[in-house]
Design brief:
By secondary structure, this protein is mainly alpha-helical. 75% of the residues lie in helices and 0% in strands. The chain is built from 25 helices and no strands. Helix 21 packs antiparallel against helix 22. The longest helix has 32 residues. The model has no long low-confidence stretch (mean pLDDT 85).
Length: 489
């Protein structure tokens, strides 16, 4: 049952309709219960389904039906994916498969031509594992092609195997890094990378592919996001980018990774309050997007809008940031939460809460989609909005739930400051007048392990700005801009 619920939850409404049509075509009798079971689960009815289906308890029949429906769903999702997939990898696999069929049917000339096309496609995007299969096939039938230079084919296969093994070592190193990041006391991300790369004999230099260097930067940024510490990774990110630039001009096949890297650098500089540099990388990102095809442009457009809106909002141009986010019709969760945050900073509490309420799925659902950090931010903003809107009957329960659900995780990633902040929010909720007292201000000063202004993360500052605004009886946005060192219009 859990597997069925999980699969159905990820289907769009269009996919659900298509699946029901798919079931209808497969069903041989009109009284089959698989469509009824699907509709019941989709409607959230998961109790006593066997009775609803059969009119009496029938666990064995019910479990067998669940198994058949789950198998049908998996088959549908796989088939649907292949039908709509147009990636270079799938096209290459199709060519490889076609060439093998031609070889089996003794159509050697067209087989070698098709295999050559597959090889050229695979080389364009560094598909080392698929190239291994291509070279295996090429060598298997090499004796049937008098024009083929056997020694060159062997050399190409061996060079690809070397690159494949290097890529495999990198993946092992990245897997170790990801595993270590789950532990509370893993040390600095830079030291962790150096140790893992040394263990697997990997050098961070121009020999690494664009994909590998992007993966390295991505995992570094992920660690920074978990710890709200982009300051310590900035030199490493820029050092890696210098290596990338040394590799030479980006070709079309590398554009996806180039845009992704520029986006990571724009985010890193924004989180470190280096707004001009962030905007510079965002502009480079947009230029590269326009050079690519339409699908690539659409793929990165949400990320571009978000980084543009963030820089506008934190350089005193919220009146431009909010329309940019509002006009952009997209279901991206990061975009929706950013819009709520911008409205909150402008004291548009009712409008912000209205947009927050539109995020109607459970936190468990959002956690699967975006991760726990996003859910924590959503919960903090919700609590602050409830306080601002005098919905005090809901605040205590939300605060209690927050501590119960997130305290352990925040401790594991070294973010006790969030819990300290929420305790102070609770104090304000209990006695709003007390926050303007000197005793409360002293308590706040001694409650946090404050970092230097350059080191402190911009989002950490943003949440604290709300509390400071209450203590000083000032505008939230004004205090936010003061804290991050942005111009105040």
């Amino acid at each position: 049952m859990k597997g069925l619920i999980a699969i159905i939850a990820v289907l769009s409404e269009e996919e659900k309709r298509d699946f029901l049509l798919h079931l209808g075509r497969k069903n041989r009798r009109t009284d089959t219960k698989n469509t009824t079971l699907f509709k019941l689960i989709d409607a959230g009815k998961t109790e006593n389904i066997d009775v609803l289906l059969y009119g009496k308890p029938a666990k064995n029949s019910y479990h067998a039906l669940c198994k058949r429906l789950q198998d049908s769903l998996i088959d549908f999702v796989a088939s649907n994916s292949f039908a709509g997939e147009t990636s270079e990898e799938l096209e290459t696999l199709k060519l490889l498969l076609a060439s093998r069929i031609f070889f089996e049917r003794k159509q050697y000339k067209i087989a070698f031509k098709t295999l050559e096309r597959a090889e050229n496609f695979a080389k364009l995007t560094d598909m080392y594992s698929i190239l291994n299969e291509i070279y295996h096939t090429k060598l298997q039938y090499a004796h049937l092609n008098s024009r083929l230079i056997f020694s060159e084919s062997i050399q190409a296969a061996e060079e690809n195997m070397r690159l494949y093994q290097q890529d495999f070592r990198l993946n092992k190193a990245l897997a170790v890094i990801k595993s270590e990041l789950k532990h509370e006391n893993h040390g600095s991300i830079y030291e962790l990378i150096q140790t893992s790369f040394s263990e697997f004999q990997i050098k961070i230099d121009t020999a690494l592919t664009y994909k590998s260097l992007f993966q390295l930067m991505e995992i570094t940024a992920t660690a920074a996001r978990l710890q709200s510490d982009y300051y310590s990774i900035a030199p490493f990110m820029l050092q890696t980018y210098e290596i990338i630039k040394q590799k030479g001009d980006f070709k079309d096949k590398h554009r996806f990774y180039h845009i992704s890297i520029l986006n990571l650098l724009a985010i890193t500089h924004f989180r470190n309050k280096k707004f001009e540099r962030s905007i510079e990388f965002a502009n480079k990102m947009e230029i590269e997007m326009k050079k690519g095809n339409r699908n690539l442009y659409k793929r990165f457009l949400v990320k571009l809008v978000i980084i543009k809106a963030l820089n506008l909002n934190y350089t005193g141009k919220a009146k431009l940031a909010i329309p940019l986010l509002t006009k952009f019709k997209n279901e991206a969760l990061d975009l929706k939460l950013l819009l709520v945050m911008c409205m909150f900073q402008q004291s548009e509490f009712a409008l912000a809460y209205q947009n927050l309420r539109a995020l109607y799925h459970s936190d468990v659902w959002y956690e699967k989609k975006t991760g726990k950090i996003w859910v924590i931010k959503k919960n903090i903003i919700e609590i602050l909005l409830l306080i601002e809107m005098d919905k005090l009957d809901l605040v205590f329960g939300r605060l209690l739930s927050f501590r119960r659900r997130f305290a352990k995780f925040l401790g594991e990633i070294g973010e006790q400051r969030v819990l300290t902040f929420m305790n102070l929010v609770n104090r304000y909720y209990e006695n709003p007048v007390a926050v303007i007292s000197s005793d409360f201000k002293d308590e706040v000063e001694h409650s946090f392990d404050w970092l230097e202004k350059e080191q402190e993360d911009i989002f950490v500052m943003s949440f604290y700005a709300w509390l400071k605004a209450k203590m000083q009886r000032e505008d939230i946005y004004k205090i936010t801009l003061q804290l991050v060192g942005a111009p105040i219009n």
